[in-house]
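Progress narrative, work stream C.
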Amino acid sequence: MDTLTEELAAHAHGRVPRALRERQLLALGAELFAERGYAGASMDELATRAGVSKPVIYDLLGSKEELFRRCADLAAQDLHERVASAVAAAAPVADATAAEAQLRAGSLAFFRFAAEHRRSWSVLFAGDSTFTAEAESIRHRQTALVEALLTGAALEQGGAIDARQVAATAQALNGAFESLANWAAAQTDVTPETLTEWFVALTLPGLQLLARSASAGPGSARR
């Protein structure tokens, strides 16, 4: 039994506090969007799962569109935390460097997240302008995380990368992550593990070159 379920059980015979009910509805809403997608999810189904009336949902969270926006924001936080935690816990194996281990761990966390949220992911990144702001928020968080990782990797090599090069590289990597996740949404036989191997094979040589140029000193990347 998870924490949310335990807290709800404690109020089984009494009024559920507003903040707790809101957390429940957001959690159930996220599950519903993941299962049915945005178009297939209904507030009637959410009300049934939560054991409340639709007016309660509208009072706490507003429309289905507003609910999806809230769920998307929570998903963005979850994605950021998963990738950051995976990178922080990455340990080199065999002859792999720390940077390679971090790239592999972060990539796997990203692709697993996208696979788990396949329907919601498609809604956010399939080109529908309705949720452009939410998609951009996720991109911004991921780009900032990748920039921090690239800068940290350069410092470990004893050098520093030009800030614009870091930003450009982070944008390129983030675009590749997103593009592969979108492609994989229609390729259900391609696992996150396989995507990770392909992604690392494609990007690692360039990142290694970037790290070497950073350790070689200022201006070496432009020679």
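Work stream C, second folded protein:
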Amino acid sequence: MSRSQKPEWLKVRPPAGERFTEIKSVLRDHGLHTVCEEANCPNLGDCWSGRDGPGTATFMLMGDRCSRGCNFCDVETGGMDPLDPDEPENVASAVSKIGLEYVVLTSVDRDDLPDQGAGHFARTIREIRRRNSDTLIEVLIPDFQGEPELVRKITDADPDVIAHNVETVSRLQWPVRDRRASYEQSLSVLRELGRTSDSYTKTSLMLGVGEYDHEVYRTLSDLRSVGVDIVTFGQYLQPSTRHLEVFEYVHPDKFDIWKRIAEEEFDFLYSASGPMVRSSFKAGEFFVKALLQDGIPIEDARDVADRS
């Protein structure tokens, strides 16, 4: 199959419906960005609807332009604006109006800021918690250049899940990611999260960029060694001709195999794995289901210090 010819399993319906329209309207009223829209996520409508559990919307903090230029990402690079001091309150207000039971916060990289945006992230977490005490909060953070004190600003705000993506295996960090990112730096962030936080930790891998099976297996081992609880796998899709080409369209059966290996052999809490899966794909639904299967009541989701 040609790399430019997408297989049938990658075809999705465009988002639509009352819930989709409602959420989009609230976001525009508050002047907010979501990574769902900015990164052209194919699962936007499916996640927002929450048909099988709590709906998930992923807010992108600190603007829609990034200080880095990863070769897989469709977010624009450069020309960043100053932070909006009202954004934490606006996000919390939107969460209330939409009635989200599970919210994901992510951001562009802001290497231009003194604390790289860690404090802004933390304020947003606390503001959501103040206004929406029952909402579960997941954050997908940058690497903060591996600075532990900036990572601790996030852990001190006490979200329920903290994610940081390694994106791909060690050998392919470049050309997949910006040269300021690295596999070792991302592992150090994940290690710091596991060492200083009781939150669940999570990461994501893109397949189809030229990785070998033994490299994926080694990555899973590395992730568990630094205490990562949750891993997701998805197919890399080329956003435009300017971006990294797809090396391979991985068959859904292969994603099922990686899910089984992650959960049964490496004992991850859960693994969301499939061609259309992204880091925050139905994050609320998967997380709640995994907690229930692990015997943890949802109301005790934040009390995870004694988890095995």
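The mean pLDDT is 86. No further action is required on this item.
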